[in-house]
Amino acid sequence: MLLRLEDVARSFGGRTLFRDVALSIHRADRIGLVGSNGAGKTTLMKIAAGLEATDSGRVIMPRGTRVAMLRQEIDPNRSCSVRVEVTSAFAELAELERNLHELERQMEELAHAGREIPSELTDRYGDCRTRFELGGGFERESRVERILEGLGFDAERIERPLNSFSGGWLMRVELAKLLLSSPDVLLLDEPTNHLDLPSIQWFEETVADYPGAVVIISHDRTFLRRHVNRVAELEGSGLTVFDGNFDRYVEQKALRREELVANKRTQDRKIAQTERFIERFRAKNTKAKQVQSRVKALDRLERVELPDDHIAKMRLVIPPVKRAGRSVLSLEGIEKAYGDTVVYEGVDLSIERGNRIALVGPNGAGKSTLLRIAAGVLPFDAGERTLGHNVTVAFFAQHQLEALDPHRSALEELEASATIDDIPRLRGHLGAFLFSGDDVKKKVSVLSGGEKSRLALAKLLLRPANFLVLDEPTNHLDLVSREVLEDALVGYGGTLLLISHDRAFLNALVNRVVEVDRGRLWEYLGNYDDYLRKKAASAQRAPAVAKLEPLQTPGQQLAPPSAARLSKQERIAERERQREFERRHKRATKRLAAVEEEIRQTEGRLEEFAWRLGDPEVHRNPDAIREVEAERAEVRSRVDELYREWERLAAEVEAGEQDLSG
Questions:
Q1: Which value, to the nearest 10 degrees, does the dihedral of the CA atoms of residues 470, 384, 353, 418 take?
Q2: Rounded to an integer, what is the distance from CA 549 to the centroid of its chain?
Q3: What is the rounded distance in angstroms from the CA atom of residue 348 to the CA atom of residue 384?
Q4: How does pLDDT run across 389-421, given as a tens digit for each residue?
Q5: CA-wise closest residue to 16 among 50, 43, 52, 34
Q6: How far apart are CA 522 and CA 397, in angstroms?
Q7: What is the tens place of the pLDDT at every residue in 473-515?
Q8: Helices 140-150 and 167-181, packing angle to 10 deg
Q9: Of 72, 417, 569, 578, whose CB neighbour count within 10 A is largest?
């Protein structure tokens, strides 16, 4: 046993976070600490690390046990390099090295003077050298570089000063120091929040091989499934420990709840019977003793309480969105640079209706830049960005949390973005984002990071656009909130483009993965796991060759697969048929774009009729009203014709593109 919590309790601001908490941590443990935001997970971890005191109970550990926790508050103004800061984790080894040099100097002086070296001095030197070797003193530099490389630091970043990095990168520095110090008990609070997907994969391998115990707060379901062997859940001011990984925890929790519901049903039935007896015989003297006995029994009865998890069962239904044109977004020849740093130099990306695309790649590859260009919130240096017919874009990023008005309540903040028709459903909409009861009256200024994220998402999805562009939408969300958002987006009828480091979230939602690598894009069909499998298979087949061809540029076509087996005359005829097919396809594509533009203009005319009918002069003249209504009916009929033609052309173009692509 490395560490044990016994009957630990902690309150904050008159609210009991938890009480009677008991948890034993052993060397092979990989414990996932879960619970809703605000349940007290971080506080409990700080108590285990000795950084906060308990209200009652105690923390027990054997002498010499080292416990360390990943810090969340980091000084951003330090000017030393990443290498120097991370190497400071070897403070004990550095002290041993100084002692070795001093002992060597003393022995050299004695030898130079022809004097005998005392055995006490050689014993001290031998002991010091053994401790230095066992501590990995001779491998320090290679360990530092290996861990920093795994966390995404290249040779240039390693030498940069700390004050040139964002908070996310500074968190990586702290994680590197923690891993290098190798405590017996490693306490990690959301360590993957600031890691990209390649770094998360490296981190998983490191945790799997870690020689000590690991306790981790994480909302990454994939990590919890793969790497924890126990789950400790903070719920209702108590801690419950489940053996097994996250999936086993979900199963056990469901079974325990079923048993609890059955026990409560039985108890409620017995209570009702007892209360009926008391009510029936309360006035009878002959039954007074029995009545009093049952009253006392009810007072002493420990009632079965169900956890307040009705919120977890809430599911958000996103309203239907307007149907967009087949082409939602086209980026052609996009160029973007920040000063001398070129991010993109002529990149293309095409997004069609119904696509659910994840952008993946290491931090710094340009994912967020591409996402913001796609959303229309970031200018680019050259190229063309074209939105399709009837496409409306909504963009979510973490900076929008700061745009919330701190003086408004959650409900008032939502009302500020609502129409009159939305008002009756605002409370229900907030409830779907886990704001229940009086929570809707909380001021934005007192909301946690997770609550602000939920509120910002609630605003975004109140009347959603048909093209959602999302940058890390699950950051700061707990497990329940992530599942609510995930279920909502599964039923969303529009097009998605997103960045997320939550692999379970990606697997549930996306049907295409676009990898961003050194200014180029590589496309993979399927979800995130499909992408990993295809990458691995491609690496095995051709480890020295690029994994996939870049995304096809507009107009790039593949030759018919059977062309090599045809005769010369047949090949000529086949090429002519192919050219004619391509000409028809080009005409259909051009006509489709023209129809989409005509639909846009004609629907604009329909909106004008509403204004004309509201004109007082028209409104008072029955003949004028009939004339406007007749014109509107004619225009509406034209819109219907255009949509029928649009559907036919869209199907023709789609079939043609499938044929052209093989």
A1: 50
A2: 28
A3: 9
A4: 999 999 988 777 878 888 899 898 888 888 887
A5: 43
A6: 24
A7: 888 788 888 888 888 888 888 999 999 988 999 999 999 999 9
A8: 140
A9: 578
d(CA 331, CA 551): 12
Cβ atoms of residues 404 and 507 within 8 Å: no
DSSP 589-610: HHHHHHHHHHHHHHHHHHHHHH
Per 3-state DSSP, the chain is made up of helix, strand and coil in percentages (nearest 5) of: 55, 20, 30
**Cα dihedral 567→572→578→584 (10° resolution):** -150
Mean pLDDT value across residues 343-369 = 91
What are the distances in angstroms from CA 547 to CA 531, 539, 558?
11, 7, 18
Q: Are 161 and 79 in contact (CB under 8 A)?
A: yes
- Give the global pTM: 0.65
Q: Out of 156-160, 309-313, 358-362, which region has the weakest mean confidence (pLDDT)?
A: 309-313
Please give, one letter per residue, the 3-state secondary structure of 365-382. Answer: CCHHHHHHHHHCCCCCCE
What pLDDT score was predicted for residue 519?
86
The residue behind tokens 């998890």 is: 309
The string of DSSP letters for 23-61 reads EEE-TT-EEEEE--TTSSHHHHHHHHTTSS--SEEEEE-
Task: State which of 9-23, 534-548, 558-572 shows the largest mean pLDDT.
Answer: 9-23
Give CA–CA dist 319/422, Å, rounded.
Answer: 11
